[in-house]
Design the sequence.
């Protein structure tokens, strides 16, 4: 379902010329549904009821919303996670899927425990994600993406990095105006160069408390904190 | 270290007659340190510098605070968790220890996957907690407590129960005025009678998002949400 920003979520939403053009570019027709969001965290489903040059009307469709929402977060959440040794990633992928990750980006990091992942292992992780999505009644199976070097990775929206000693809280950044990526490093932690590279590009370091977490626990704490906000 | 409530955390805290009497009851002497907290979530360490009938002065001791704090939550957090089949509890105990649980109370629930735990298995869980406490640099090893029936369990302070469909958020209840217990059920969920019993006794149902979580993931999401607040 396409996503269309509206000035305000209402039972009846009248769009001006720019937004109407956007609907036309999407080749939407009267009767079709789109996800509507106000950019401030509220979202729903709107059904297109009028469409003419320069003007369109969407009406809230609460029934479609209930089924469209499924169990997904308001904006997609990517988990960017360092490659880990042995079978640890299987547990991470399974729980991350339950906890709402829409995408799992594997990372090669400076202090990595592992620098590559076999094709068979990647296939297995994808099967685990698919099975976990089914069991947790999600409508989306997170894509498990082949590893990239951390300092070559790319993201849209907000990037939050679990970092020992950080003061900011993940809940300070959950306005859902943009996609979200949460990143956690390998057992040895991120290198100073990696942290500097990320923060220069606008990443926010967030706390996971004063204890030392294993590399396979940190991603679940990050995603658990989001889920515990009701998302 | 004793805990003393103060009107407000400050570099110099002057206590009136009631609070001074409390210090005297604790037999504190000038030069000794106490934990001070304001009942609204802020806490620190104060050193007693003046003590006379009806009046006492505490001065913040930031150095003592850093070492006293260790990696513990402001109030002890108990994880009350249903018995689970197989080796699932081992993973829960390990991660719960990293995430700051001070006590792990095992529960026998109506829809339990398991109704008892062998002595050897309990010993093993305790060993796992001890090892995880060491690795996560905690000063406290959580006690793993033999199972009790949920409807006979007892708790001090606030009880938060992970429950599908709940609207309240765990972060709404983290004022740290009292010990905290977070409870999560077995794979089949809590029974209606159990939920009613808990809520009649003041338990608060909290959300972990709209997805179905496995019984071994929910406790980590609860504790992860607390850790992500910096505790």
Sequence:
């Amino acid at each position: 379902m396409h996503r269309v920003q509206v000035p305000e979520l209402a039972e009846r939403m009248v769009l001006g010329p720019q937004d109407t053009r956007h609907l036309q570019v999407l080749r939407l027709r009267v009767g079709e549904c789109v996800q509507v969001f106000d950019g401030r965290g509220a979202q729903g489903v709107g059904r297109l009821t009028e469409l003419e040059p320069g003007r369109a009307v969407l009406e809230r469709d609460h029934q479609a919303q209930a089924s469209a929402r499924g169990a997904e977060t308001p904006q997609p959440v990517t988990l960017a996670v360092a490659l880990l040794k042995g079978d640890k990633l299987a547990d991470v992928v399974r729980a991350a899927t339950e906890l709402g990750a829409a995408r799992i980006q594997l990372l090669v990091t400076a202090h990595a425990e592992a620098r590559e992942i076999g094709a068979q292992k990647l296939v297995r992780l994808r099967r685990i994600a698919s099975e976990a999505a089914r069991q947790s009644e999600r409508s989306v199976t997170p894509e498990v993406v082949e590893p990239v070097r951390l300092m070559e990775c790319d993201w849209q929206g907000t990037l939050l990095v679990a970092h020992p000693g950080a003061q900011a809280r993940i809940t300070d950044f959950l306005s859902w105006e943009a996609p979200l990526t949460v990143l956690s490093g390998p057992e040895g932690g991120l290198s100073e160069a990696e942290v500097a590279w990320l923060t220069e590009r606008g990443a926010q370091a967030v706390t996971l408390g004063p204890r030392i977490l294993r590399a396979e626990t940190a991603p679940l704490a990050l995603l658990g904190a989001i889920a515990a906000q009701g998302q």
